[in-house]
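dumping this here before i forget
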Amino acid sequence: MSEGYPIGEVARRLGLSVDALRYYERAGVLPQAERDAGGRRRYSEHDLHLLEVLLHLRDTGMPLAEIATFTQLVGQDPAGVPERLALLRAHREVLTARIAALTRSLAVIDGKIADYDARLTTAAAATAGR
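structure:
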């Protein structure tokens, strides 16, 4: 495979280090990259798309072991979706609960900001009235 993208370009495009890509590959999080005649990794458009999906899963808190399972399922049957769908639905439920918890926390923080802004406004008005 001589076409495709070299590891350095893929790392730059995805905002990762080359070492991170190699680590994720060794850990089974990423599928093994195709190699060119010189043994250098080459990534296809399909690989890039999968990598982007996997990075979103990572960024949303999916454990690397589950991402590796997702990757294995893709490699076993690229057209088969039931197990991947179940994995993604379960992760979505976790994210939905996390978003709800963050929304509640944000409301508390917004309340404190409003309280402190009001205190400062009151203090500034009292100082100006002297």
